[in-house]
Amino acid sequence: MATISDVAALAGVSTATVSRVLNGKSTVDTELVSRVREAARALDYRPNTVARNLRRRDSSVLSLVISDVENPFFTAVARGVEDTARAAGYSVLLGNSDEDPDKERAYLELAGQAQTAGVVLSPTGPGTALPEGTPPVVAVDRPLPGGRHDAVLVDTRSAARLATQHLLDQGYQRVACLTGPPGVHTAEDRLAGYREALAGRPELVRRSEFKAAGARQASELLFGERDRPDAVLVANSAMAIGLLGTLAQQGLRIGKDIGVVSFDDVPWASLVHPALTVVRQPAHEIGRRAAGLLLDRIGSVRGEAHTVVLAAELVVRGSSTREV
Amino acid sequence: MATISDVAALAGVSTATVSRVLNGKSTVDTELVSRVREAARALDYRPNTVARNLRRRDSSVLSLVISDVENPFFTAVARGVEDTARAAGYSVLLGNSDEDPDKERAYLELAGQAQTAGVVLSPTGPGTALPEGTPPVVAVDRPLPGGRHDAVLVDTRSAARLATQHLLDQGYQRVACLTGPPGVHTAEDRLAGYREALAGRPELVRRSEFKAAGARQASELLFGERDRPDAVLVANSAMAIGLLGTLAQQGLRIGKDIGVVSFDDVPWASLVHPALTVVRQPAHEIGRRAAGLLLDRIGSVRGEAHTVVLAAELVVRGSSTREV
DNA sequence: GCCGCCCCAGAAATCGATTACCATCGGTTG
DNA sequence: CAACCGATGGTAATCGATTTCTGGGGCGGC
């Protein structure tokens, strides 16, 4: 790879001039400008971003650290982040923390040490701490403890309340909630909304990881018991897969014997029969807003932390409507 | 952030000694070792990886450039890459080319300029060229033109042939193939396998992007025509969503009126009714093998290009079996 | 005609690490 | 006893860019 010195030598100027021409920072004689451009083209010169970042002490790369790349919600968020970042001339480097605080920490360290300009982060849990030297952070989906950082969240509690209320309105009597691990903010929030809607009725709560396998196990236990629910609110799409597997195995007719509402409007939600009622979260917009906040923050470090809360939408389909 | 000079000053030694202690490259007096370690701890020192990479002219980061983060196949590949990379002490930076050659090129440039140690790439198409300065590359899913690079592929052609044969064996007469855009290797390969199985029977081929919307349109046209197929081989899971949507709309009973086999064993394949027959590709293993090859290549640049071809498996479920 | 100012471009410092090279010291060998 | 050797640690070069500093030349004002 050609370096800036090679270009300077070929053009017969100093490296300072080459840099000035290529960055357009200062006026340079047009004759020299064309000599430099010519030389750069001839050598197929590309600036070494490592050297540039070292000197400039920043870079035009955003880190995106998400808790599960295999979750369609987060990949949609990732798309949103990428779209606005690219529009602003930034690239996005994606790390998958896999809900593991150690991996998360490793990626955050990398984000700081590699001098990325900022981080969009979906924190694994309440224990998430930012290593020293971490650039500006915007939390998505879940807030960071301390509340000193920008965040883009969804009013998932209201959504859970409305979804539960909807099941009750449809005549389901005994609504269960299958939510995520204790301490995970979204899991607790959805549970809280569920409880609000129950308004004193007896609750029926099970927890598992935000994965299909865990939800499968949890729901098998739930439906193996005497006092079965006749409806379930399930906290994400992967868990819905586990739940629906169990229901099929048990021979329960969804929408009749059992009502189901899931979080996240995945593409296949309309393909199962009956189609799945879901809480649709504006995943793409979450990503776009988060990237927007982050770019603002990078532009000027000052200012209060902003928290944006977006609304979720209940999309009613067959899985929750009693076919009378 | 503390720098190596701060540590050196606090420990009363030179930066060279600090570096030697922290990298264990050379023997250093135990007294100095402990002073340095103490100082590093006291200052919460973390080496600046940008500076380190500049000097060492490499890094322990792998780039992963995939063509669609929202495609479960590629996210599973990504998990595989990440798993082996992390085990070897590497981090993974993920870029989403979104099947767009320009974005792909931008990420490849970044991979080279940021001095990542290597790239795992699913090329967007036959036009993919590697910019000068690109580190070692392993292609996944689709080969790179020229054949001078390592690759991990799937024998998707045989799989397509077997899948088509399976549909014919089940008594379907008029099997269509809904595949990806012209020139995309996997699209062509699957089409070729389909044609092999047809063995001269009249073919019925439609193409669209590897996305649900395109497949939906294409299949609406396909089923709007006079001479409809009675079975379809569809080239990926996103396209299957579009196809299944059309079939439901048309009131066709899957597995009876119409047989369906899709590529990619997504989690929801068993949840639709009837369950979807699929070609299961070993996505996670593809990622692991690709990262393995890449790490080998990074270790020693010499050697022939290796191409690993993995087998895919036909998983027969209800969507392709005539319920007699 | 002289002084000061501005503009431009080169020289050199800088970012923060690694590492080639050299100096010192204690001990061993011929 | 001189020459040598290995271990150790400091000095300074280096990676490849950006940016500050500096100096020379041209031009306007007095």
TrEMBL record, chains A, B:
<feature type="domain" description="HTH cro/C1-type">
    <location>
        <begin position="3"/>
        <end position="50"/>
    </location>
</feature>
<dbReference type="InterPro" id="IPR000843">
    <property type="entry name" value="HTH_LacI"/>
</dbReference>
<dbReference type="InterPro" id="IPR028082">
    <property type="entry name" value="Peripla_BP_I"/>
</dbReference>
<dbReference type="Pfam" id="PF00356">
    <property type="entry name" value="LacI"/>
</dbReference>
<protein>
    <submittedName>
        <fullName>LacI family transcriptional regulator</fullName>
    </submittedName>
</protein>
<dbReference type="Pfam" id="PF13377">
    <property type="entry name" value="Peripla_BP_3"/>
</dbReference>
<keyword id="KW-0804">Transcription</keyword>
<keyword id="KW-0238">DNA-binding</keyword>
<dbReference type="InterPro" id="IPR001387">
    <property type="entry name" value="Cro/C1-type_HTH"/>
</dbReference>
<keyword id="KW-0805">Transcription regulation</keyword>
<feature type="domain" description="HTH lacI-type">
    <location>
        <begin position="2"/>
        <end position="56"/>
    </location>
</feature>
<dbReference type="InterPro" id="IPR046335">
    <property type="entry name" value="LacI/GalR-like_sensor"/>
</dbReference>
<dbReference type="InterPro" id="IPR010982">
    <property type="entry name" value="Lambda_DNA-bd_dom_sf"/>
</dbReference>
